[in-house]
Amino acid sequence: MPALWIRNARIVDPASKRDAVGDLFAEDGKMVPTLSAAGRKRAKKIDAKGLVAAPGLVDIHVHFREPGQTHKETIATGSRAAAAGGFTTVVCMPNTTPTADNAGTIQYILDAVRRDAVIKVLPTGCITIGAKGDILAPIGSLKRAGVVAITDDGDCVQSNELMRRAIEYARMFGLPVMDHCQDTSMTDGAVMNEGDVSIRLGLRGWPNAAEDVIVSRNVILSSYTGAHIHMQHISSAASVDILRRAKSDGVRVTAEATPHHIAFTDEALATYDPNFKMNPPLRTEADRRAIIAGLKDGTLDCISTDHAPHTDYEKDKEFDYAPNGILGLETALAVVLEVLVRKSKFKLSHAIDLMTRRPARVLGLPAGTLLAGAAADICLFDPDESWVYDAKSGQSKSSNSPWSGRTLVGRVKTTIVDGRAVFPFAAS
Amino acid sequence: MTWTRRHLITIEELSLAEIDQIHATASAFKKILQRNVKKVPALRGKTIVNLFLEPSTRTRMAFDMAAKRLSADVIAFDAASSSTQKGETLRDTAENIQALNADMIVIRHAAAGSPLYLSKILDIPVINAGDGAHEHPTQGLLDTFTMKEHLGSLKGRKVVILGDILFSRVARSNIHALTKMGAKVTLVGPSTLVPQGFTTLGAEVSHDLKSALADADVVMLLRIQHERQGHRHFPSLGEYTGMFGLNKTRASWLRPHAIIMHPGPINRGVEIDSELADGPRSVILEQVTNGIAIRMAVLYLCAGHQPEHVIASTE
């Protein structure tokens, strides 16, 4: 049976409150407390001196574009980007072509995952048919086909009645509902945060109130029904406040924040660079700080990248016409180390928790820990290595990253899935 | 001071000295335009492409006229019949124009930031002729030029800009030019079209027309761009005119020397009464005339010439 022995790593496993230098062992794809003498002898050994050994990172919000938009990304390339970024489990969004609103498309995705993925890729299904917000998708069939959550990500369910019924219905299957919080009646033609910068640049503003209205709506519906709603990529300080109060009242809501919303503000748009265009948009410094505070006190549950690949020729346009979204998987860990650990003084274990155990817990996934018996999904990284990220030579099929060309600190060295090293990639 | 700029993208990035240089150069060209022979050979052998991807009458004709007065060849790019309608990207269109050996591009585009984007792609000078709701630098330059002709220095002068500020590139370029030149700018209109955020650009915001007009030296009207507002920013044109339209009574609140400006196109009877548009305070057609001299100055300077040469030639 294959065995793995990682020696002399700084082991950071928030689930077991462990942060100490030591060895890790795995056998048959599972973490084990130790190996027999014979097991140690035949185990693959990795010298991890100077490296951090964390649970494999978990991202519950990525876009892998398959089926139908494979010019941007595929499950093969997306999962390689994830592995290069230290992720071992990701949850992909259903806004593919066709949309993943039916069991057949989910089956197609799972077949592609089995064939092409180098890490664990879990699908979500739509809340409504075509994510159009009119008719409930066959949520029971989606659950049976293997989705881990439902969401109309990118399109927020506008009807309060439909959202109420969706969460009540999904609750019967124990399926979390994830919502992209945006009142679209308030964001017609909007391409950036509404505020001083949008006034200066003459771009149409997306007011944070349009997010806050839906976050409030979701809190009210979750409170009313008792069903779980997960709010995707929170960008507004007011939304953080609403969620803080809801959580203290015991409402079953969870929420995520992206690396870009904690790293940048709308001032970054001064040059109209579409690599800073995403939805929800970058907001003000006050919002950025509030999101970091929300991550610190647990109001926001986890970091998710919203990895959203687009080709150069799609993204390289007039700002108004460029699609929303940026890459995130290959830079997330370094950005979190920079913004949360080095600048905002989070403990390393806290930052790791936000990228492992906590996102797994939001969706009830069996991932995010190094406890004995867990899958041997491990991320080994050098927290101090400085490197220049070049999106063009990255693993994603696309290169739409605002971090391209920047020096980052903290680099993934080895990614292990079920006890097998999947990154660095073997020469092909 | 030497003129070094190759592109004209915004007034926000111009220094006061650069604005003065453009004005001085335009002033010299204006003298030339009053001669019998109105043409100078400054840009002979150069080709300027007018890439107008959004409808325009005044600006396009003024750029066309200005280029011809400078002896440049002008190619007009017609958006309606061009390959942009077939899905060609702006980058490809621009690179093709450059490959055709154009020496300069004048661009009008509905998307804010497009001129800056072009200037990063191309090696030839890019002149912004209006980008979305962002800037319309030559309009700001010709407006302040016209104000100076009537009022002298603009330091301490008060300019009221009245109307749809939120969606106006003309307002933004004028705010930048006027504040650099030391004028006080007050923005007036319905609160939905004149958000408080404009104070961060150095202007005052008011919704009280009477007090704003009382001590104004200039009132600049902007067209109500009903097509951009989706009928949500105010109830009706009638209500707008009732509250903010400039009529005879309201014009009587102005001081005797105050002038009325409008970048056009005018909606007579909406933002301004017809007789005021044609009346003695109106400098609306002077703005159009000055627009040629300003665009000649901008094309001339961005093509690499220095202001002194043309100024000397007219002294």
Notes on the protein architecture:
The complex is a heterodimer of chains A (428) and B (315). With 428 residues, chain A is α/β, with parallel strands linked by helices. Helix content of chain A is 31%, strand content 22%. Chain A has 14 helices and 18 strands. In chain A, strands 1, 2, 3, 4, 5, 16, 17 and 18 form an eight-stranded mixed beta sheet that branches. The relative contact order of chain B is 0.17. Chain B is built from 13 helices and nine strands. Chain B folds into two domains: 16-135 and 288-313, Rossmann fold; 137-286, Rossmann fold. In chain B, helix 1 (16-33) packs parallel to helix 13 and helix 5 (137-151) crosses helix 12. Chain B has 315 residues and is an alpha/beta fold. In chain B, strands 7-6-5-8-9 form a five-stranded parallel beta sheet. In chain B, strands 2-1-3-4 form a four-stranded parallel beta sheet, with helices on both faces. The A-B interface holds A 188, 195-196, 199-204, 271-272, 313, 316-321 and B 12, 89-91, 109-114, 116-117, 131-135, 166, 169, 172, 195, 197-198, 200-201, 230.
